[in-house]
Amino acid sequence: MKIAITGHRPNKLGNDYDLASPLIEKIDMAICAILLKQDELYPLGSIELISGMALGIDTLFAKIAIRLGYKFTAAIPCQQQYKMWPQKAKELYLDIINHPLCTKYYVSEGPYSPQKMQLRNQWMVDNCDMLIAVWDGTLGGTSNCVKYAQQQQIDIRIINPKDLNL
Cα–chain-centroid distance for residue 114? Predict the structure, then answer.
């Protein structure tokens, strides 16, 4: 069973680049609840996660994978994806992709371009059985990923950060 995630960047999550706010804690709990339900359905060790490794929810998902001991694939959209990020985020990114539970997969070669983010999203959907979407319904990369997953008839679990009663 492979579970991928799509979700908002920090700018849609209270600008919490440290992933430490009460909202992020509630999102973390909601993601973990979905994973634990799947753990009950599948043999131990048979669940693998896929993170697109962007700032925000993707990074949170990778941190959850490490914390809970899941193997995961870092679906990296392009070389040096993190080049323009704040230093602290770069360091966390490098720690994550170098973790023993992580398998790195570069979806596209070369430098950043917006279309590579969509190619990464399509690759994740094409390689998962379930997609978790931390999505408030607004337009953007997350909505594009959800629409593609719907077209591919992937099981989607939506966590709306606006519904978490803060």
Answer: 17
